[in-house]
């Protein structure tokens, strides 16, 4: 109990009049007795708090009637882990009783190890403490574990055990097999927690080696953020040494003549083999010519139909100074105790073939060339021969493949065709196998023969061409002569026709008319050249040339071309009209002459003469003189 005292004192001013007066002093106090009160905690409504390990939960706890105010504490699990720092508290005072109500809120996340453990809320002050608690129901995704197992090759029944830890519980598991390096091999239909491996032949049981994965799901999200949870264990199945599938392209290996080479074989072996031996036939290779080594590598093999990577070994045989006898079959034996497995490797040459020898040209014709050679060593492979040829003076080689046997040291003969006659060619040869080709032989030169058929053909063509030229020349001469004679006959005919026409015309004329024309020539001035142009000189002058010749007068210029330009049928009509006008008998020229005359100009000209008689008489005078 605490006693509180309160003293009140008043001091007055004392004057001289109060001297020798007795004074009484009294002490007055009030006592208020205060008692500490233990907090009363309110129990949780539910005894259990359900949560998930990946989620935080919120929970509240309250105490009342405490004096002084209570402190609130949160304790977790059997160890009583203090998680109070994750909470917040608030107190309210009742002034009439000087008591406090305190409320605490906790926000926290637990994991699966707290499942089933207590969460305690405690209120405490100087008077004492009280607490309440609840049980945690922590839900969590399955935790999957799979045991590691080792099986012998002869063990027939093989089972793999898994353990599932989950809330709510889950007992099903989906199984699959993977390689050590994660390649998926196969799934299993068995969904139990215990997997029984399928039965396979003894030689295939090594393929059961690998990682076995169990997958489980109960609908709760795991801390890894996945609904499906997995666990795995590694299973080893013992077996004799295995020549792995990555050797399938290495049954034949290659080396070069005179060089060293290596034969390599990949092996998978658990447990590891104990001894390595190499043989040629039944002969064990132990001389200094051969050396064996091994190294750990990743190999590839097929497990239940799937190619996977494995931890294995590479066994290597080194052979020095390869000779032709070394290109043969080699056998590798891997021992495990008294038992062994073996593998055969064939060594072939990877050398280029030798250059063919004695390459010569034996003969040629107009379009073919025959060559001969001796094949060299083929390099351990089938070789093919090629002849290259080109026209002398050019740079481009043409290739001709030669199909022949692969026999050594025998002469080969081959005839190439398709060449041009009388042409110079250069030829050379080389051999080739699937690895490389030989050097070229020396170049041989030859000229194809001249083609006899071509020579006789050229002679015939030349003779025919000469005859044709001569015939053409003769024909040209004959045609020229005929044309010349024809033109000459036409000129003669024209002149005779003109003569007869003019003679007939002259006889029919009365004497005084001709004299009148002559008389007029003495008195009439000569007409200008324009007169001739107006009268179409080309036709008119020619007509009267013959008249002038009949009179003994000098002839005006007249050409054969003028007569040729005269019309055929109109010329006759001109003279017929003249005769009729004068009342004289007509002197008709030959029909050939009329056909040679132009059909266009004559009729028009003489018709104009008839209408312009005066002017035509002047023309006669001018033509005469």
List segments where confidence is low: pLDDT < 50 over at least 5 consecutive residues.
1-12, 499-625
Tell me the structural class: alpha+beta
What's the total count of β strands? 32
**Count of runs of 4 or more consecutive helical residues:** 9
Using only C-alpha atoms, the radius of gyration works out to 71 Å
| Proportion of helical residues | 10-25%
Mean pLDDT figure: 79
Taken as a percent bin, the fraction of beta residues is 35-45%
Whole-number count of domains: 5
Give the terminus-to-terminus CA distance: 193 Å
From the spread of the alpha carbons, the general shape counts as elongated
For the biggest sheet, the summary is: 7 strands, mixed
Domain Ig-like: 33-137
Organism: Mytilus coruscus
Transmembrane segments: 28-46, 459-484
Keywords: Disulfide bond, Membrane, Transmembrane, Transmembrane helix
TL;DR of this structure?
The protein is an alpha+beta fold and 625 residues long.
Furnish the topology, listing elements before pairings.
Elements: E1 40-42, E2 48-52, E3 56-66, E4 71-76, E5 81-82, E6 87-94, E7 99-109, E8 118-125, E9 128-146, E10 149-151, E11 159-167, E12 174-178, E13 184-187, E14 194-196, E15 210-216, E16 229-237, E17 239-243, E18 252-255, E19 261-270, E20 275-280, E21 283-284, E22 290-303, E23 306-319, E24 329-336, E25 339-349, E26 357-364, E27 368-374, E28 384-391, E29 398-402, E30 412-417, E31 424-432, E32 444-447, H1 452-508, H2 511-523, H3 529-534, H4 537-550, H5 560-564, H6 568-582, H7 591-596, H8 602-611, H9 613-624
Parallel strand pairs: 2-9, 10-16, 18-25
Antiparallel strand pairs: 1-3, 3-7, 4-5, 4-8, 6-7, 8-9, 9-11, 11-14, 12-13, 12-15, 15-16, 17-19, 19-23, 20-21, 20-24, 22-23, 24-25, 26-27, 27-30, 28-29, 28-31, 31-32
């Amino acid at each position: 109990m605490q006693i509180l005292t309160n003293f009140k004192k008043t001091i007055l001013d004392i004057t001289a009049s109060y001297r020798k007066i007795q004074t009484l002093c009294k002490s007055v106090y009030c006592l208020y007795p205060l008692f500490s009160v233990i907090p009363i905690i309110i129990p949780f409504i539910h005894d259990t708090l359900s949560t998930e390990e990946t989620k935080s939960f919120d929970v509240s706890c309250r105490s009342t009637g405490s004096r002084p105010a209570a402190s609130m504490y949160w304790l977790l699990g059997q160890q009583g882990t203090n998680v109070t720092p994750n909470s917040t508290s608030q107190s309210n005072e009742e002034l009439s009783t000087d008591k406090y109500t305190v409320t605490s809120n906790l926000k926290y996340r637990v994991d699966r190890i707290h499942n089933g453990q207590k969460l305690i809320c405690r209120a405490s002050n100087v008077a004492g403490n009280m607490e309440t608690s609840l049980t945690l129901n922590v839900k969590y995704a399955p935790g999957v574990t799979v045991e590691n197992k080792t099986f012998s090759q002869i063990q027939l029944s093989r089972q793999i055990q898994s353990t599932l830890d989950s809330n709510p519980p889950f007992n099903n598991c989906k199984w699959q097999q993977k390689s050590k390096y994660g390649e998926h091999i196969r799934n299993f239909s068995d969904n139990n927690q215990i997997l029984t491996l399928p039965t396979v032949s003894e030689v295939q049981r090594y393929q059961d080696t690998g990682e076995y994965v169990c997958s489980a799901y109960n609908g709760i999200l795991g801390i890894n953020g996945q609904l499906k949870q997995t666990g795995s264990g590694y299973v080893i199945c013992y077996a004799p040494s295995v020549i792995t599938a990555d050797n399938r392209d290495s049954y034949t290996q290659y080396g070069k003549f005179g060089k060293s080479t290596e034969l390599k074989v990949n092996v998978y072996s658990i447990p590891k083999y104990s001894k390595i031996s190499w043989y040629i036939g039944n002969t064990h290779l132990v001389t200094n010519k051969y050396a064996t080594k091994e190294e750990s590598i990743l190999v590839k093999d097929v497990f239940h139909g799937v190619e996977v990577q494995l931890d294995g070994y590479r066994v290597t045989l080194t052979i020095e100074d390869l000779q032709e006898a070394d290109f043969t079959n080699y056998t590798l034996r891997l021992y495990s105790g008294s038992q062994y497995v073996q593998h055969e490797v064939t060594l072939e040459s990877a050398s280029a073939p030798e250059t063919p020898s004695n390459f010569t040209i034996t003969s040629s014709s107009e379009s073919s060339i025959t060559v001969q050679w001796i094949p060299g060593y083929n390099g351990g492979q089938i070789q093919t021969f090629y002849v290259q040829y080109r026209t002398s003076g050019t740079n481009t080689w043409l290739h001709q493949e030669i199909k022949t046997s692969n026999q050594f040291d025998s002469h080969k003969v081959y005839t190439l065709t398709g060449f041009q006659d009388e042409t110079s060619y250069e030829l050379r040869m080389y051999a080739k196998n699937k690895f490389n080709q030989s050097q070229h032989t020396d170049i041989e030169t030859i000229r194809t023969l001249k083609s006899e058929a071509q020579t006789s053909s050229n002679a015939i063509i030349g003779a025919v061409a000469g005859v044709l030229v001569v015939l053409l020349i003769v024909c040209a001469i004959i045609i020229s002569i005929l044309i010349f004679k024809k033109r000459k006959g036409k000129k003669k005919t024209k002149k005779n026709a003109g003569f007869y026409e003019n003679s007939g015309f002259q006889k029919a004329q009365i004497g005084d008319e001709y004299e009148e024309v002559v008389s007029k020539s003495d008195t009439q001035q000569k007409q200008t050249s324009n007169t001739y142009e107006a009268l179409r000189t080309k036709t008119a002058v020619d007509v009267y040339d013959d008249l002038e010749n009949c009179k003994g007068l000098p002839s005006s210029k007249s050409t054969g071309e003028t007569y040729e330009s005269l019309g055929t049928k109109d010329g006759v009509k001109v003279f017929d009209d003249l005769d009729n006008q004068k009342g004289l008998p007509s002197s008709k020229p030959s029909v050939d002459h009329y056909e040679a005359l132009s059909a266009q100009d004559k009729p028009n000209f003489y018709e104009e003469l008839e209408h312009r008689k005066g002017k035509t008489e002047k023309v006669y005078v001018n033509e005469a003189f």
